[in-house]
Amino acid sequence: MVLESLIDPFKAETRPSRLILLGFVYCTISVFLSLWIFKSYSSLIMIFLTVMACIPLMFNTIKMEEEKDLQDMGERWLLKEHGKALKVFMALFIGIVLACTLWYVVLPSETVSILFETQTATIQNINPNVTGYVSGDINSFVKIFFNNIKVLIFCVLFSFLYGSGAIFILSWNASVIGAAMGNFIRSNIAFYSTLVGFERTGQYFQIISIGLLKYVVHGIPEILAYFVAGLAGGIISVAVIRHDFGTRKFEHILLDSADLLLLSIFLLFLAGLLEVYVTPIIF
């Protein structure tokens, strides 16, 4: 495949910043192909095509991480090495989010309503009952945390069953976040469209910055947690495929995956605190 050959896992881990551009390109191509061929169902076809483009890189990266587990190195060294793969996944995710945000903002409203139809419906169904104060309702935090845990379980399950299957959930989340950010930016730009001159330009940059930061504060640890969990499930999946099951090395792989899962739960806990008590105060 042309898209698959653009970069290999080793180059991706040495220069993860390139993956932001690659994720942007993958998603952009998927956006226009879905609008061209399956316009009525483009909100889901876009995700499907993006996932297809990302799977080879993700699977090969996870396979390379599983090989590191077989070297019997210390857990601290392994976590440091896994950090390289996580940077790759996060950069890819950021690229997809930026692409979705851009096309939500610049495309005609009629096209946007079709392209992000399912994502918009998902956003409207999200419960916004978050107070934004430290003395806020603890039930909001508990609800958000356990909902995120459910998504994390799906990431582990998809990765275990399909190797790199978690990329579907993560690409979907990227499109939802991109749609939310795009809607925030677009609606506020429309509000300030009556302003003129340099003042209007300044307002545009301010709106875009706030739109990005509004979701970055709690979004980064939350998405990172899903990638950590997906990596854990993918490593176990590759180990089983390679017939490492039942060996001493497989026990080492399980220990490494357990550490990754604990780390992902901690990150979700942190993300929940930021979403409930910090983000609403700032924005």
Please describe the biggest sheet, giving its number of strands, its sense, and whether it closes into a barrel: none
Radius of gyration: 20 Å
Shape annotation = globular
Rounded to the nearest angstrom, the distance between the terminal CA atoms is 43 Å
* Tally of separate helices: 10
* Weakly predicted, low-confidence segments: 127-136
Query: Which structural class fits the helix and strand makeup?
Result: mainly alpha
Tell how many strands the DSSP assignment holds: 0
Give the overall pLDDT as a whole number: 76
Measured by DSSP, the beta-strand proportion falls in: under 5%
Helix content: over 70%
Can you walk me through this structure?
The chain is mostly helical. It has one domain. The protein is 82% helix and 0% strand. It has ten helices and no strands. The protein has helices spanning 9-14, 18-37, 42-69, 75-106, 109-115, 117-125, 138-162, 166-191, 197-241, 248-282. The longest helix is centred in the C-terminal third of the chain and has 45 residues, at 197-241. 39% of the residues are buried.
